What we know:
Layout: H1 3-23, H2 30-35, H3 42-53, H4 56-69, H5 79-98, H6 105-110, H7 113-146, H8 150-198, H9 202-211, H10 236-252, H11 255-263, H12 267-301, H13 312-321, H14 326-358, H15 363-366, H16 373-391, H17 400-424, H18 430-450, H19 458-477
Helix pairs in contact: 1-8, 1-14, 3-8, 3-11, 3-12, 3-14, 4-12, 4-17, 5-10, 5-12, 7-8, 7-13, 7-14, 7-16, 7-17, 7-18, 8-12, 8-14, 8-16, 9-12, 10-17, 10-19, 11-14, 12-13, 14-16, 17-18, 17-19, 18-19
Amino acid sequence: MSILDYAILLAYLIGILILGLAVSRRHQSRGDFLLAGRSMKWFVVGASIMATVFSVTNFTGFAGEVFGHGLYVTLAIPVFVLVALPVLFWVMPFYHRMKAVSAYEFLERNFDLRVRRLASALFIVWRVAWMAVALYATGRLLSGVTGINLYSLILITGAITTAYTATGGMRSVMITDVAQCLVLLVSLAIAVASSVHAQHGILNLLHRSSAAGLLKPFHPFDPSIFSLDPRIRMTFWSVLIGTFTAFLARYGADQKVVQRYFAAKSLDDAKRGFVLNIAFAIFALLCLGLLGLGANAWAAAAGILPAKGEPAALLGRFVASLPPGACGLLVAGLIASTMSSVNAGVHSCYTAIRTDFLNRRPASTAGDDTLDIHSDRVLTLSVGALATFLACFVGNLGTIFEIANKVINGLGSPLLALVLLGLFRRGLTSTGMLVGGIAGILASVAISGWVSHLALHYYAVANLLVTVALCYGFSLVLPAGSTAISDQKSEIR
């Protein structure tokens, strides 16, 4: 990196910290700290959702998949449109009617406190693990770009992000998310333009990618993508079904995303923001696909292919090869994506702990609480410190793409099962949900850890189906002491 690149990166870090602290200076009740007074407009909501779910994990995972295997992973892009239908017309209206703070509050009404806390605890474990992976992915990639020690980068990114999150609460998180989202999108666009220019135009880049076999499965067409064999690493069906399951967990059962629905000024603002998020996400993934092709063409020209193992190191060297200014801006954008993801994760985990375990007062009265600034900040700092600490040990779990699909998406599936069953709830008992949910979590860990030769995207599907089956099964055999609710009217009607 050049002096210009370091200057851009330093300016970004200072600017985002100042912005976060400036927004946090206003007096806040607990309702403001948790939901920004439910006052956020659609653009802020959309940019915040996008910034929340995107991190360097996507860069190393998506671009790395294109770099090493071709365009198979791009089959997931249309799923954004498919998953938008149930989210816009079913999930978001349901949560809007709740007027809650926790996404899992309704599980206590429909079952009991134990089920609510089980879902919340699973969310916390899921998101702390996800934050650790995001921080590790950032350190791994940027260490190759800057030459800075991996663990130093993890600690710096985690510390800065946790600091302004603990200081400012939800308003600070969402406002800084907007800035980080825009920095990310602009940096991706400039990086793509620089990469395409280095390959003497888009047509020349596509020609080189075709010669390297990276335009598969589209050119030449690979008929195996329509195979029903669940052992094939990636097919149309596994990507469609698995990604839909993972996205539904992300947008329908994830406290850190649902909390942005709650913070919106109105249901219409939440819906418009969600559509904006989809547009931003598709644009970002298309850029990542082109960057993956560009990185492979650059590596081939430099004579450093073939490469064994995860392509994160080569992606880092590719980023460092970009022209001065473009490199620094992309590094800033990638750090921005991780910081926004981590601040959302830290704040939403704090919210889950506070509202599901420490103070379960109804949402209508929670906003009148005086903010206990010391205890809330200590709790937030503790969550961020834990995620940062765990990030130092992620490297032993496999490649980032495998971790994301087998472990992270796999843990989201049991949570999605609890939420979906909580909505429909027919034929289920509280004890059955509790025991089945715990068994489903354990089964999901076992499937993700020990089942091999399964398409990567099917882990999320398998974990969802197993958890649903176990919850229904235990509801049949453990009716005693449970609250039977099969005769009650469905919550979603």
